[in-house]
Every structure is written in C-alpha cells, then in structure tokens.
Amino acid sequence: MADEDNFDTGDMFQDPEGFYEPEPEPSFAEHHMLSGQTVRVRLVGSHPLYGNLLWNAGRTSSHYLEEHADRLVKGKDVLEIGAAAGVPSIVSAILGARTAVMTDYPDVDLVENMRHNAGLSAALVGRDSALHVDGYKWGAPVEPLLAYLPEAARSQGFDLLIMADVVYSHREHPNLIKTMRAALKRAPDAVALVIFTPYQPWLLPKTEKFFPLAEENGFHVTKIFEKVMDDVLFENDPGDERLRRTVFGYEIRWTEEELK
Hints:
Blueprint: E1 27-32, E2 38-43, H1 56-67, H2 69-72, E3 77-81, H3 87-94, E4 99-104, H4 108-120, E5 130-135, H5 143-146, E6 160-164, H6 173-183, E7 191-196, H7 204-207, H8 210-216, E8 219-228, H9 241-244, E9 246-254, H10 256-259
Parallel strand pairs: 3-4, 3-6, 4-5, 6-7
Antiparallel strand pairs: 1-2, 7-9, 8-9
Binding site for S-adenosyl-L-methionine: 55, 82-84, 104, 138, 164
Pfam family, one: Methyltransf_16
EC number: 2.1.1.-
C-alpha cells in the first residue's frame, strides 16, 4: 500500500503556466497641437469600450478646437463624453476653457486612466482653467457634471459638448440626444461638436441617422468638414479604405424655436 504521506498531487486546481494570456500593458501616445505643444497620454492596455486607442476623431477634434478656440473654447465651459484618453478635454483646458469636464463610461480602469492623463498635462493648463474627470453613462442625469461648473453657471449648462467617435454606437443615439438636451446651454452660440470616422463603412447610413434624430429633438445640424486622413486606424479591416480614412465633422445647435 502506498504511503499516503508521500503521495503529492501538487495543486491540481492551479492553471498551468501560460494558460491565460497576460493583460496587455498600457501604452503611450502623443498628440501634437498646432501651437507646437505636445499632449502625452496613456492608453489602457485593452478595453471593450476602446479606451485603449487614440482615435482619429479625437485628434481631429482637438485641431478643430485650436483653430476655433476664440469662438468655442476660451472662457467657455466644456463637456466631453466618450472621452477615452481625453485629448480634446485636455486641449480645451490648455486653450483656456473656464471648465473642462472629461467623461467616459463609469468603469474604474477608464476613469483612473483619464485622471492619470489629466495629471500628465497639468503643467500645461493655466490657473484660470479647471480640468475635471468623472464617469458618466450617456443618458444619465447630468447634475453631477453640472456641479463642476461655477455656481452661477450650473443652471445654464455647458457652452460646448465634444462628442468624438460616439455616434457609431447606434442604439445609444437616443441617450446621446438626451444628454445633449440636458447638458447644452440654451444659447445661440452653444455647440455640440460631433466628429466621427466610419470605421465600418457599410454601417454609415445607420450612423448618419443620428442627425435627423437630433433635428427631430430641437437641434439644427450643420456639416462643417470632411477630412481625409493619411492612414486608416485599423489597417486590416474590411470596407472602403477612403471612407475608413475620412473624418466627418458637424456642429449642432439649438433651433430658434427651442430658444424662445
């Protein structure tokens, strides 16, 4: 009979070495502003909500904000939803926004990474600008976000909403509209900046349904540019390559009827 004391099974419930692939390490990316300043951000190693990428729409939004800083950003209150790494929010703060609030889905890793990126650029932000970070689910009440504004502005809302590469989530269109209606200041110069690339070109007609929905809900939509980038973000993806390199930009404002 075997000596039970010498019968070593090891840890039969332990997974063998290499059974699970290790989590990808975070990476870093740089956005070069037109002013010559560089915004460096950390990207999460991987994430189902794509927070591990620095999107073309985010870069293009940031350049557009620089080109129109006096009209859109300086001294304004800015909210970004679906911010991922948060480059447009950071650029807004650097450009002199009174308040910039960077938000994405309230996931611990995403929010912590946005806070990290805000810290990386803190030295570039002037003392008259405040940069905040929070989790926010589209369509949820916006009062926690309005609380970041100066007290006198909380009942009015944000001057600028940045919505870069969010409208590809077709089922979220009603929630995006809900957030716009709740967060955007009721003023003629208040703007929601919607910028996106059709990474799946065959779904572009569905993506574009966001704009008539916005018009049905009290907004006026203006297409402002169509910019073809040098490179695609996902080289091996199917679909029309030129469309996958194209960034579409829109400015959305309240209609006159909504402002009466």
